[in-house]
Amino acid sequence: MLTHTIRTAVLLCILGMLAVQANTVLDQIVAVVESDVITETELVERINVLRAQAGPDAQLPESNVLAAQVLERMILERLQIDWGQRRGIQVDDLSLDQAMRNLAARNNMDLNGFRNVLLKQGIDYVTFREQIRTEMIINQVRRRAIDANIKISENEIDALLESQKNQLDNDLEYRLSHILIQLPQNPTPSDIASARESIETLYERANTGESFTQLAIAHSQAQDALEGGDLGWRSRQQLPNVFSQELAGMQTGDISNILRSSSGFHIFRIIDTRGDQVMLVEQVLARHILIRPNAVRSKQEVINDLNNLRTRIINGDDFGELAKAHSEDPGSSVNGGSLGWSTPNVYAPAFRDQITRLAPNTLSEPFETKFGWHILEVLGTRQHDNSLEARRNQVRDYLRQRKIEEETELWQRQLRDESYVENRVFSDDS
Length: 430
Fold this sequence. Notes:
Shape: elongated
Number of strands: 11
Order of helices and strands: HEEHHHHHHHEHHEHEEEHHHEHEEHE
Mean pLDDT: 86
Number of domains: 3
Helix content: 40-55%
CATH class of the largest domain: Mainly Alpha
Strand content: 15-25%
Strand order of the largest sheet: 4-3-6-5
Low-confidence stretches: 1-10, 19-25
CATH topology of the largest domain: Triger factor/SurA peptide-binding fold
Radius of gyration: 33 Å
Number of helices: 16
CATH superfamily of the largest domain: Porin chaperone SurA, peptide-binding domain
C-alpha cells in the first residue's frame, strides 16, 4: 500500500498531465481491480475523452473530483468486464468494427472521417475504440445479470396509472355520440323487455361494423338523433354519471356497454378526445375460416372444401355457424371466426396482405398462410385511439427502467464489496 505522500504525488502527476497534456510520462498504477490494473495513462486518456465529448462549454467538476469519479467508473467497468469474462461474454473485433462503422454512419461519416474528427478533438482512436468495446461488453453483462430478471406486472402498471388518473383526466374532453331507446315514466315489464331487445339489436349492429351515426339517425329516440346522436365536446364532469363512470378504460372509437338510466337504455361511442395525446391507428374487424391439409386431406381437397363453404355463404348460409362447425382455428372458431378489432400488422404477412386489400363485406378466395388455408371476410374498419395502450407501454418502460437502475446500483455495490479493489489515489484514508 502506498503512503499518503506517494498517493499525493501520483494525484499531482495526474493533474499535471491534465494541465500540460505531456506526451511522455512514467506510467503509474492508480488502481488494482482483482487481477487487473488501471494505469495513470488509461485514467488520463478517459478523462480526455470525457472532456472532448462534453464540449468546451460543459461545466465539469474540478479536476481532482473529475479524476476520482472517472476512476471509480473505470473500477466498476473492470469488475463488470471480469464478471462477464468468467461467463464467456466478449465482443470480437468484427462486431466491434461494425459498431464503429455504425457509429460513424449515425454521424454521417465514413470510418476514416470519423477517425479524423476524433483526432481533431484530441481523442486517440484506439482508446476510443476500446471504450466502445467495453460499453458493448457491459451492456451484455447487465442484460444477463439484471435486465433478464426484471419483471413488470400488470398490477404495477395499473397502480401507477391509477395514481396519475386525476392528473391525466384534468384537461381531457370527450366528444360522444349516443343512441337512446326511451322508457315511459312508469314502464311495465313488457316495456322494459321491448326496449332492451331494441338496444341489444342496435348494440350488436354497431359492434359488427355498421355506422354508429347512421344507426343513431335511424333509431335513436333522443333529441339529437338527427345529428347522429352527437353530444358535442364535454368534460367528464359535464356528462351524465352513467356515462362518466363507463368512460374508464374506454378509448376513441370504442362503444360502451348497454347502460340504463331513468330515461331508458343507452349506448354511446367515443368519437374523439382532446386535451391529451391521441394516437390513432387503423383497425379492421374481420372473420375467417381456417382448414389445414394433413395426411388424409390434400391441399387441393382443402381448397375445394373452402370453395364449397364460400359458395354456401354467398348463397345465404351463416358465416359464423359455418366457422364454428368447420374452422380449425381454436382461438376464433368458437366466436364464429371473428378475430376482433385488430391492427393489420399483428397478422402474418400473407394474411395481412389479404385483410388490407379486401373490400368490406366481401369474401376472399381461398388463400394460404403458414397456418393453413383460409377464406376471409372484412366486416368493417375504424380509426382507433391507441393512446391508452401507448400510455401503458410508457408506464411499463418507465417502471422497467426504474427497476433496472435500482437493481444495477445494488448489483454494482455488491460486486464491488465482494471483489478485491485497491484505489491507490483516492482511497478513503488518503
